[in-house]
Amino acid sequence: TEKNREGYAPLYNPFEQFISRYVYRRVRHCFNTPICSAPAAEITIMERQSDDYNWTFRFTGRKLKCLNLSSYNYLGLGATSPPPVAAAVRQYGLSVCSTRAELGTTPLHRELEETLARFLGVEAAVVFGMGFATNTLSLPGLVGPGTLALSDENNHASLIMGLRRARAAVRVFRHNDLRHLERLAVEAIAEGTWRRIVIVAEGVYSMEGTVVPLRALVALKRRLRLQLYLDEAHSAGAMGARGRGVCDHARVPPRDVDVLMGTFTKSFGAAGGYIAGSAALVRRVRAAGHAHAHAAAMPPPVCAQVLWALRTVAGPEGERRILALERNTAYFRRRLREMGVVVLGHEASPVVPLMVYTFSKMAATVEVLRRRGVAAVGVGFPATPLNAARIRFCMTAAHSRAQLDHCLQQVEYAVQHLGLRYSRLTPPPP
Ligand code: PMP
């Protein structure tokens, strides 16, 4: 393939250009819909009308209230702004207008980092203004030439970009396939040239709804003396009886994971990201990652929001919400299975992908659901293989049983009218 200046294949190769020009043009009414409310159990979106003949759409000027199964608001905290947030705006303004290393650290940042480390059960933590940049800017401080990264094939774009920026050697293992991972690791150890070998994986995969087999992964990494970088964007707050993420879910001591990364944009309903682990790791990320010294600090009102969210999750209200999320997820997954559709992922995963396989069915399903008052996200290539488009439902603790039933009724309508049940052509899941 053609290479760009950095020596990587360009993001948009001719095939992707073809897809974006001819396929996305037909399905683009699925995407970029502006919203006009907070991402609560319901969400208000701007209504669009598509002209199928000309492949265009226009906004009608009307607003549509939908049941919201499209935001990563797993615990339902996203729509709430508690009083400490307004107090932080009054005291510090919206931005510190500086990096953490310069004059950008407020007592709220320090309190947040201490609270987060206690919440996760590790020695220390450092927070950043953006989750995506937490990966892209911290990985180059942790891995580099001489390091081999063994990366899950379904890792998020920010992890891939971080590894590329780090100029680390990367070998990709099949999704959650520990035998393949072990084979690659044993081969790499036999080469004898790598200073360090780091496994890069996620807790819950946002396109598949799968959960990392953490116990077995930690045992493997100990046996072969590897390190583990774990992105908990979709699992921190959402997984485990105490909402501490996949370590909590798999009953693995958090200290067994070398680098815990996470974001505050999902369960915690705010913005930003973190790296947590040993005090030495956090010192290194502050010193060698680019974010601490070159990017503006997390806005203080966001720190206040995350602090409130962490304390809520750690208290009785958090317990109630984690239980509600668990119940909603189990109920929704069971009802979808009863409909005879193909649903991916782990039973406990709040990301619930319903397979529709083709772009056209994805676009039609999103549109039918939207017209019937349900907001759900369609995902396809390049986030998934070309023939594996899906509708992604995100569960939240905020939905009542009646709301879920109403949503499932609309899904059933789409399943019937768009032919989404599996047949001999689309085999049931293994
Ligand atoms: N890691 C993973 C696994 C993600 O799914 C995402 C975003 N969805 C990010 C990192 C980036 O986080 P943010 O959106 O908070 O910048």
Automatic annotation (TrEMBL):
Coiled-coil residue spans: none
Alphabetically ordered keywords of this record: Acyltransferase, Membrane, Pyridoxal phosphate, Transferase, Transmembrane, Transmembrane helix
Needed cofactors: pyridoxal 5'-phosphate
EC number: 2.3.1.50
EC top class, as a word: transferase
Domain (Aminotransferase class I/classII large) ranges: 65-409
A single Gene Ontology CC term: membrane
Gene Ontology MF terms in the entry: pyridoxal phosphate binding; serine C-palmitoyltransferase activity
Biological process per Gene Ontology, one example term: ceramide biosynthetic process
Catalytic reaction list: L-serine + hexadecanoyl-CoA + H(+) = 3-oxosphinganine + CO2 + CoA
Protein family membership: Belongs to the class-II pyridoxal-phosphate-dependent aminotransferase family.
Protein name: serine C-palmitoyltransferase
Residues of the full protein shown: 106 to 535 of 789
